[in-house]
């Protein structure tokens, strides 16, 4: 019975998370949601909420954590696709754009709460972005044999550019997204070339920049 109860508890928790995400939109942020609206959308009594979250802030922080985890898992899958052949940058950017198209509310949550009024939410989003950056840094060090400092600089610049492009993509049509994707790929290739040049400098080889 304990296993069944645990499954039911997780199912109810999932209903609350999905209900909150489904109500986010370009016009509505998490701070505008009420507990009553979330439980109604989930088809649950308000008392059920408190068996899973102490308040709406805890639910919001859970959404941020899940958003960051979802994005990191997706980019790991992209790197697995890369191992089978193809451009690292091209596949990564297209995967990121696919994520935004499929999960616009999730990405809006990250963007809004990163600059929102809640210190706890800002810290949570920044933590997720740090995780994302460090995973990319580790990959770049291994794939391109970069030193740690250069790998981090490239990863940090790439994340800033990609998140900025993602923000533009939320309100763009298909042709604009295609143009935005191509531009982002070119920008990241410029950065990659500069990172490799900086790496060569650091190890004492000739550099043209």
From TrEMBL:
Keywords: DNA-binding, Transcription, Transcription regulation. Residues 34-53 bind DNA. One of its GO terms (molecular function) is DNA binding. Gene3D superfamilies: Homeodomain-like (1.10.10.60), Tetracycline Repressor, domain 2 (1.10.357.10). InterPro entries: DesT_TetR_C (IPR054129), DNA-bd_HTH_TetR-type_CS (IPR023772), Homeodomain-like_sf (IPR009057), HTH_TetR (IPR001647), HTH_transcr_repressor_FabR (IPR050692). Pfam families: TetR_C_46 (PF21943), TetR_N (PF00440). This is HTH-type transcriptional repressor FabR. It comes from the Bacteria. Residues 11-71 form the HTH tetR-type domain. The gene is fabR.
């Amino acid at each position: 019975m304990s296993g069944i109860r645990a499954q039911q508890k997780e199912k109810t928790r999932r209903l609350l998370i999905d209900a909150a995400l489904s109500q986010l939109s370009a016009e509505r942020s998490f701070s505008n949601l009420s507990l009553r609206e979330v439980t109604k959308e989930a088809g649950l009594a308000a008392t059920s909420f408190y068996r899973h979250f102490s308040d709406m802030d805890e639910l919001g922080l859970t959404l941020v954590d899940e958003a960051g985890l979802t994005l990191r898992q997706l980019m790991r899958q992209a790197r697995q696709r890369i191992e089978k052949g193809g451009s690292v940058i091209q596949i990564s950017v297209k995967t990121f754009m696919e994520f935004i198209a499929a999960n616009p509310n999730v990405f809006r949550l990250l963007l809004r709460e990163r600059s929102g009024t809640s210190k706890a939410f800002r810290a949570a989003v920044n933590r997720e972005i740090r995780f994302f950056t460090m995973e990319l840094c580790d990959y770049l060090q291994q794939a391109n044999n970069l030193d740690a400092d250069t790998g981090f600089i490239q990863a940090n610049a790439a994340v800033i550019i990609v998140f900025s492009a993602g923000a533009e993509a939320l309100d763009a049509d298909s042709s604009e997204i295609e143009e935005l994707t191509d531009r982002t790929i070119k920008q990241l290739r410029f950065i990659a070339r500069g990172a490799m040049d900086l790496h060569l400098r650091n190890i004492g080889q000739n550099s043209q920049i």
